[in-house]
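Collaborator request log, item 7. Partner lab (contact: R.S.) asked for a structural prediction of Homoserine kinase to inform their binding assays.
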Amino acid sequence: MKSIKALAPATVANVSCGFDIFGFAVEAPADEVIITLTSTPGVVIKQITGDGGRLPLHASSNTAGVAVEAFLESIGSEQGAEIVLHKKLPLGSGMGSSAASSAAALVAINHLYDNPLSREQLLPFAMEAERIACGSAHADNVAPSLLGGFVLIRGYAPLDVAKIPTPPNLYCTLVHPHLELKTEDSRRVLKASIPMKDAITQWGNIAGLVVGLMKPDYGLIMRSLHDVVAEPIRSALIPGFENIKAESLRNGALGCGISGSGPTIFSLSTEYSIAERVGKALQQQFESMKLKSDVFVSKINDAGARVVA
Ligand SMILES: Nc1ncnc2c1ncn2[C@@H]1O[C@H](COP(=O)(O)OP(=O)(O)OP(=O)(O)O)[C@@H](O)[C@H]1O
Ligand SMILES: N[C@@H](CCO)C(=O)O
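Returned to partner:
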């Protein structure tokens, strides 16, 4: 039976001001999924590595399995699939761990059927998997992981996504402290409504970031990378957040914030050397609080999930 391997990258959701509507893909880390078609129906997770035995092996509870089940049903296939997942993204990290598994699985299974669906058409299956993983079908991790680049989710009903062009010299530093935050929990702490003055600040920043990326205008990007909705509440869940952010900006980053629902911190810089320096500085900050961390520096990944063999 035919078998294929695909990779899907980590993603930074929200990007400070764009709660649930912005996300971009980075180069690494990336989850790896190998799918083999079977002649009998049903999706089976054959093996998972790299998760310390923590992820569900039951297909209907694992984002890779849920996405493949939804795909096979949508094309009316009578075949089944076996999935091997090499988990490279840390769980509950804010780097889109649950999304990377479903994105890789969808790109692999779609390829095995000669790509009957576009990347955009695969999105609802990955969103359904997000609902299983964290109780909310947000698309700001799955969309950039599947489509690549910097993605706007303009609306959810109906789903309307658009890629925002980004300048070639934009580097992302991800610093992942060895802490876990469940998306479900960090969504629960947010308020159901926001004051009008915060809404005005936020939509000014959202529009400013889009214009800043498209022009490009780095001053505008810098002024727009602020969040008055989620960060003021969620930052309490990340030890030393204010110092961490100040240190990133002091080292030359354009902006710094919580990646997705945290605890990973993202920073954007205009040069690789600045992005590296920011990574080292933030790692030292976490170390001073006796927290180990991993650093990933890369450009924005315009391709997203890809088949590798
Ligand atoms: N294949 C999978 N990979 C990762 N998590 C999965 C997977 N399948 C199911 N899950 C469940 O999803 C949850 C992890 O999702 P969570 O949203 O907390 O982390 P995350 O994806 O890293 O965060 P974020 O969405 O903030 O980037 C865990 O409870 C885990 O059991
Ligand atoms: N937009 C989502 C992303 C989770 O990674 C949130 O912040 O809850």
